[in-house]
């Protein structure tokens, strides 16, 4: 089944990453303010970015540019999907600092997670978050993610969101977004 290249929801638009935008994402990703929260923190070359895009441009990885109006503000993704197990990994970063604290990450992740559970029929999502990234931890927990057992002392912690917890958390997050 062909999945949408564009998803509108909660005041944001998610546009499926295309090859003509990989250089923009590479520029964002190489910036220290973004790289500090990534597992791979080295410099990404043009060639590395092209190889990466060829590897992820498929039905097992959904990367989207986050749009607010006509402005490109960040990237959100579900990657490494295992359809047999019904699981994928969720991630996000906002490049444009003027959108931090304006609920754009919540809106983007809600839109993405709705897509994951409704369109892709996943059962759960995981996310890996560094233990010093308190802002992301709080966001993911408020979206229904729970820290996996025995992760408290890990530097890179794993959180899980089930479809059921998404449905419950979604209602309260939507109510907060309306305020």
Q: What are the defining features of this structure?
A:
single chain; 179 residues; alpha+beta; Aminopeptidase; 8-stranded mixed sheet; globular
What is the CATH class?
Alpha Beta
Quick one: how many beta strands?
A: 8
Number of contiguous helices: 6
Average pLDDT level: 93
Provide the spatial order of strands within the biggest beta sheet.
1-2-3-4-5-6-8-7
What are the low-pLDDT stretches, counting only 5+ consecutive residues below 50? none
Oligomer status? single chain
Structural class: alpha+beta
The biggest beta sheet reads:
8 strands, mixed
Give the amount of beta strand, in percent.
25-35%
What characteristic shape results from the CA principal axes? globular
Our count of domains comes out at 1
List the helices and strands in order: EEHHHEEEHEHEEH
């Amino acid at each position: 089944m062909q999945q949408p290249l564009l998803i509108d929801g909660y005041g944001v638009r998610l546009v499926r990453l295309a090859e003509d935008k990989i250089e923009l994402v590479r520029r964002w990703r190489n910036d220290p303010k973004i790289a500090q929260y990534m597992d791979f923190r080295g410099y990404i070359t043009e060639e590395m970015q092209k190889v990466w895009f060829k590897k992820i441009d498929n039905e097992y990885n959904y990367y989207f540019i986050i749009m607010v109006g006509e402005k490109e503000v960040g990237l959100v993704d579900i990657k490494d999907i295992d359809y047999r197990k019904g699981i994928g990994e969720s991630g996000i970063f906002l490049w444009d600092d003027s959108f931090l604290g304006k609920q754009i990450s919540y809106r983007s992740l809600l839109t993405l997670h709705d897509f994951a559970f409704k369109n892709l029929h996943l059962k759960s999502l995981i996310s890996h978050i560094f233990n010093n990234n308190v802002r992301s931890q709080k966001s993911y927990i408020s979206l229904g993610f729970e820290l996996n057992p025995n992760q408290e002392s890990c530097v890179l912690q794993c959180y899980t969101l089930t479809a059921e917890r998404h449905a419950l958390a979604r209602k309260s997050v939507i109510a907060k977004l309306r305020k």
